[in-house]
Structures are given as structure tokens and as C-alpha cells.
Amino acid sequence: MCGIVAYIGEKNAYPILIKGLQRLEYRGYDSAGVALLNGKLNIYKRKGKVSDLIDFVGENNVDGTIGIGHTRWATHGKPDDVNAHPHISGNGRLTLIHNGIIENYALIKKALEVEGHTFNTETDTEVLVHLIEEIQTREKLTLEEAVRVALTKVVGAYAIVVLDKEDPNKLVAARKASPLVIGIDENGFLLASDATPIIEHTKKVVYLNDEEIATVRRDGTFEIRTIGANEIQTPFIHELEMQIERLEKGGYDYFMLKEIHEQPTTIQDAMRGRLNAVDSWIKLGGIEENLEKFKDAERLIIVACGTSWHSGLIAEYIFEDLARIPVEVEYASEFRYRNPVITDKDVVIAISQSGETADTLAALELAKQKGAMIYGIVNVVGSSIARLTDAGSYIHAGPEIGVASTKAFTGQVTLLTLMALSIAQKRGTISESYFKKLTQEMEQIPHKVARVLEKCNTQIEYISGEIKNANNALYLGRGYSFPVALEGALKLKEISYIHAEGYPAAEMKHGPIALIDENMPVIVIATNQSAYEKIVSNVQEVKARQGMVIAIVTEGEKEISKLADYSIEIPETEEPLTPLLSVIPMQLLSYHIAVMRGCNVDQPRNLAKSVTVE
Length: 614
Ligand code: M6R
Hints:
CATH architecture of the largest domain: 3-Layer(aba) Sandwich
CATH superfamily of the largest domain: Glucose-6-phosphate isomerase like protein, domain 1
CATH class of the largest domain: Alpha Beta
Bound molecules: 5-amino-5-deoxy-1-O-phosphono-D-mannitol
Largest sheet: 8 strands, antiparallel
Helix content: 25-40%
């Protein structure tokens, strides 16, 4: 995690760095810092958010047209002023920002201590900047060469930018397993963990690849080499399509609320040009080009983390139900270390909003080595997963900035549903009439999501007030609603800090039922068409133990509504599509509860949006 940003050019660096850090704050927000060079090197760093850094800098000297900045999610060393980046080398010449982890830092540190280096922080990053300094001075190398040699000695993940006090005309950057984008402006260069700090300056970017080192110069020239010292002759310059308004709150109090309300549009965007219900077709580039692989797949293995893993679980139900392909859904962090059986008849699908999640990336690399075709369902264009996969589809949800994932989840589920339908049609495992019905219904989903947002918000806000002081909550669902229960519980936990568990409703009687009393809100997703009577019984079981039931039901439903303390009605749809509607009340409930409890909805404690460390 951590966000890094750097600038060299004709403009004042400080405002560019600060704005960039604010955009990158979703990646980590326990401390922030900048280093600016203008004859003298000024470094300002502070525990807390970027706003704390701004207050700390105050009226101090922020001159300089070259600088680097960092917003941190602590891995090595507690979040405080000292451990905040940038870090400085022993002789005070080099300053460095880093996103990632240097795994062998302890060994390197010991060796450097023998050479006389002393360290002021507990970080792995300080060790790296000392190592570069040691190599630069001992071997009398240029900065880029010293960085290159140092990185051959390092094990781990990094995106770094190094500033040399004695050379104000260049910055050196490198990456391995942590993202780094170079923006090419008319008057200079911006380097950042993603394109969001760059977009308002230029649309021209180069995505640095793993084990590449870039040197950008004040005179507008740049070059990229590999760690093996080979020059990349013509780096590919991408044209960004991102819209700047999508990076602002647009009148909402929080990004999360904005993103919840964007869902009618983002679901539509995920389907745009890919679905035609009238003529009964679905076309997804990545699927069409690899049709035989998908048709003949003996197994789909889905790897993901967090909310994206929940989308994967929904996909398991849909793919098995409609396309009749066995599916396994794996936590990427477990999959990568347990010597899984993978063959070239498997298709491995990675789901990731950021496209940078370290565990998901590593799981994919493993699957690729073992010969499986790897497919990506990703939001961030040009991200590492998008570039690693053999094929894939973007969900086109636009930047998701709230740490709690909302529109990315519905985008993923939309796309996975289209994939399952398309493959089912091609495999002949779905009747044409059911295919048509489902595609017609898919086209209605954006309107139905809009209706849920419009109709249910006030009621959900009221219910939130009733349960905001609970210490625990239970989420139950069966079939397609079970992953939605997991997602509802995760949303509540991460932004309101209320302990919550998601369970298959029928599993309740195997343990969790012991927890139920009048203080336990039980959120039941009861939109099932199949097994409806069974979910009615589950609600009765909760009520018999005085639990407070908040039921999500289909409009017009009577039986559960009579039993429940509160029932939230959502429009009827085909059962495989219900998660796209039933998750919306889950998102609103956790949002309102978090606001009422005074939590920072967009930046919950201890979390970061993009988990680029193990
Ligand atoms: O970017 P990814 O989809 O790979 O991220 C995976 C998880 O870190 C992410 O979904 C996390 O669980 C969210 N904070 C959930 O809201």
C-alpha cells in the first residue's frame, strides 16, 4: 500500500505533490511527507493525514520545482513522524519514497551497520536508501546505476522514487510488484502510484513494468532500463481516458455515498456494448477470443480477496447453475501457498478492483507458471493484474476511492453474470428462452438499483439509528444471497467497527444461534424464490429467540414481513440477479451506521484501498 508521487519540471512542486497525495490517500493514511529541493533540501513529514501535513508545513519554505511525496500505510515501524517517508541516506544526499516491502532488509541493515551506517527509523525503506548511497559512493556510480545495482540485492516489492540533492535535474524511479505510472507533461514529469494525481496535468502516461528503472530529466528527456541494464527502446505511451470529475465527491459527504449512488450508471457501463437482449447476444472481447478455452474448461478457479472474493462466490453459483462448469473460489492468499492442483484445462479468473492486490497477483503468477489460462476482471485500467493476464474484461466502474468497495462489487457481479450467460449460451447449457429472459432482466437492473436507492434510503437510515449501538450483528442468506450476507457483514465491520458475521441461514443452527438474543440484530436476505419456505423457518427460529430481524424481501412479500421487525422491500428480479439489488441495502445500512457512529467512512482505521503487501 502507500501512495507515492513525485514531480520535476517548470511548476512549483509542492501544490502538485499535496494534491497528488490527497488523491492517493486511499492507499494509506497514517502519515505523510514531502521533500522539496531548491538549493536546499526541505523535508516535512508528519503522523496523520495529508491535512495534518499541510498544517504542519504552514508557512515554511516550500519552494522548488522538484520534489517527492508519500502517504503511508505502516508495515515496518509504527506510524509516527520519524518512520514517515521520505527517508534520507546517511550522508544526507539521497531522499527516497517507497511503496512495498524490502523482505531482506534486516540482513542488508546488518551488513551496512558493519560499514558504519547508523539508522534513525524502524523502516525497511531507510535501509534501501542507505544501500543506494553506499553503492553510489563506494563504486562511484551515477544515481541510476547505483539504484540498479542496489535493486539487484533486494528481495521484495517496491515502487520507489529517489531524489539526489546534488542533481536537481533528474529523478530516478523503479518498480517491482508495486505500481508506478509516469505522466509526461509538456513542462515536466509526474510519477505516481496510479494515474489519479497525473490526470489533471497530462493524459500521456507510461506504465513502468516490473524490474524497470526510469530516469526522468528536467530537459524533458527520459529513459527506461531493466534491472539487467538493458534499455527499453520505445516505451509505450498510453492515452488516459479517466474523467477528472469522477475523482471528486460531487456534492456527496463521502466518496462511498457517491459511489453507492453511481451504481445505476456503473452497472449500465459494465454492460454497455456487451449485451443486446433484443437480438439475444452477449459479446465480451476476452471471451470471444478465447472461446474454445472457456467452452472446454474442466474447471474455473476464481482467485480474489475481500469483496472481490464475495463476487467470486456469486459467480460460482451462476456459472455452475447456468454454464454447468465446476467452479472453485479461492482466497488468493491461501491459494498461492498451498501447492494447488492446476492444469492447462483450468481457467483461472482473478477478480480485483485495484488490479494491484499482492496476493491476487501472486496467485495468478503461480497459475500462469502451471500452464492455466489466466483471465482478469479488473477495474483499474493498466493495473498490474490487467497487464499480467492472458485476457480479461474491465468493469468500467471509474475510480473507486472509498475504501469500502461498493460500485466495483456490482460491476464485478454484472460482468461475471454476463460471462456466465455468454458461456452458457455457447455451451448450450441454457435454453434460448431463459437466456433471453435473463438478458432482458439484466437490462432492467440499473433502473431497479435506482429504485432501491430512491425508495429505501430513508427507511434504512431510520433502521440504522435503531441498531447503531449494537456490538454484534448477524447476516444470513441462502443460495445466491449467502455471498451477499458475507458482503453485508464485511461492509459493516470495516467502516463502523461493529463485529458482524455472515452465515448461510441454515448453518445458524450449528452454532451462531447461541448468540441470538434481543441485542442481536439479524439481517436476513430473504429474496429467494427457491427455498423460500426454508428461509421463512430460519426467520422464525431467530424470532423465537428474541433476535431483532431486519429482512430484505421482494416487493409485495407478506410472510417474512409479518415476522420481521423491519422489512426492506426491493424490486423483484430473476433469482441469479438478486445480489445486484439486495446488496444495495447492505451498503446503505453500513454507511448510515458508520456516519451515526462518527466513523471516517472513506478512510476506516487500519485499512487501505489497495493492498499491495502480503
Ligand atoms: O482491489 P481488490 O479488489 O483486489 O481488493 C480486495 C480487497 O482488499 C477489497 O475488496 C477489500 O476487502 C475492501 N475494502 C472491501 O470493501
